[in-house]
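[STRUCTURE TOKENS]
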Amino acid sequence: MNIIHAVLLGIIQGLTEFLPVSSSGHLVLFQKLFGISEPALLFDTMLHVGTLAAVIVVLWKDIWAILRKLYQPLTLYLIIATIPTVIAALVFRKPLEKAFETGHFLGFAFLMTSALLIVAELLAGSGAVKGGIEKMNWLDALVIGVMQAIAIIPGVSRSGATLSGALSSRLERDFAARFSFLLSIPAILGAVVFQIKDLVRDGAVKAATGAIAPASIGSAAMIAGTISAAVVGFFAVRFMLKIVREKSLWGFAVYTGVLGLLVLLDQFALKLVFR
């Protein structure tokens, strides 16, 4: 992978991590388009580090408020919402890695994202808004957490799934967006921990066997991709907070629905990208 490809993928990651269109799904799709064969999960994790920096910068006031007072309802709800994802990642890690590499379920996953967004907007508009953190309960947090766990499938948007869970619970839209983005922090950190564990294990095996590692993504490309993801992610978070607060998710539902149909058309008929 060259630096141009890395920067482009970083831009895609920065945009799609916080827009409800699936960052992992878009990375799989564009890696197929570029013919990139390097281990996808490592580069994907580094791009997530960039978006992690972006969300921390934008929501630093929220994060600082949590750190100043750890024992509060918001902390408890973030923990509850994180547990289903941890369980799902541990149980389905191998199938997840396979799905990321092949992209076999990508079309259906994009359609699932579209369906989640549509259902969320319909439910959110069908009754009165409960409120923000003061009206949230542990069941709301669990529902959002289960939705995030579903989003470990490449093509199912994490932000879209968690926003869908929050809006379906009739939480106030601005708080729903902020909770979704705060919830991304432990999710990204968990992915980084898993990847570091793999790197240490693989390094130990290669050192013991004397194996030579195959050519992979260069450090310059990795850094360029991470920086571009961070910069674009910063603006994407700010943009998405405004969109969720003032607009609706219907446009994203249409986009992911059309994209899902196009991917399925290619997978089952055209074979231009997914051969």
About this structure: The longest helix spans residues 173-209. Residues 3-205+217-270 form one domain.
